[in-house]
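Protocol step 6 of 9: fold each sequence in the batch and record its structure tokens directly after the sequence line. For illustration, a two-sequence batch is reproduced in full.

Sequence one:
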Amino acid sequence: MKSYSYNPPKLKPSTKRIEVTDEEGNVACTFQRVYPNSVVKVCNYMFDIDWSAQVNVYSTDGHLVFQCKKTAPWLGRPEYIVQRCNTKDFFRVTYTTWQTLAPEFKITYQNQEYILKKDMLDWAKFLQGEEELARWKMKPTEWFKTRLEIEAACPIQEPEFFVALFQCIFYIGN
């Protein structure tokens, strides 16, 4: 199992670049929130409306590796797309439950399906069938320090993917 941690920005609309470190304290990647334009950014700061959200995750040498974008329709739940930037492959993330406090998502990539399940005050779990492949948790008691764990059996070993996914869905949220 690989473990990573980071301290997210103190304010949700922040565009500050944040470092993600591995268990030895080495920087594994960085991420930041990105806005499509200044109008969206100002509206987000003033009204706390997150109809558009994007998290970019960069390699240690500064290259864009993954992007997670939230698209919100006029009616219904938003959809998220996590894109691997070097190949343009994407993972589609949709709600399977409408529960706000403990949502569940279906992630599809080519012919694979994963489930992302958040339990109240517990880990967000990335599952394939019943097998837990990765988990993410933010601890309010430790100034929102965030921990990511990826099991060796997980077919997606890039922490950048999980940082983009979890940060966009569970930190920025809907």
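Sequence two, same batch, same settings:
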Amino acid sequence: MQLKPFTAVLPNADGLTKLETNDPAWSTEDEHVQTGNSYYWYELTQNGIHQWRLIARWPENQTVSTIVPADINTVLYPKQPVIEMLIDDWVGHFPKALEVTDPAGVTHRLWQITDADVNADITEALTPVAPRKTWLTTTSTPLVMLVADSEWAKFKTPVTVPTHLIQLATN
């Protein structure tokens, strides 16, 4: 996969409140731009079950096989021991970028991977990996959420990701 770290736009305190209450009145005043290009670990928790995803930049104008088409496509990949090790070893090392519980009771947590060596390790580990082919091949979205097969199977029904949880900065 041709993945890259990216500069993200995340909700600020006002934006998090809007996500918690499902308030649709969103503006640029509800968000802030993170510094630097990074990957993001994304943890979803529902009813005590945790699912891990990696959010990355995907090449433009390239098709993608997605399990859930959305503003950020969800892409399945075969479990990678190196990525699992990086999650286990590094996620607690980085400060949490945000945590919010939506009206459906799903807790969303993001960690920004700020270490250039770890970002390089993630890129290297995932370069030779091919995404799983799924029922839908579509045009790419600027960002993708990569989820290992075993992680995807944890939820019987896919969990909805809040629209403004994370976005690609445009400059």
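Proceed to step 7 once all outputs are recorded. Observation for sequence two: The mean pLDDT is 89.
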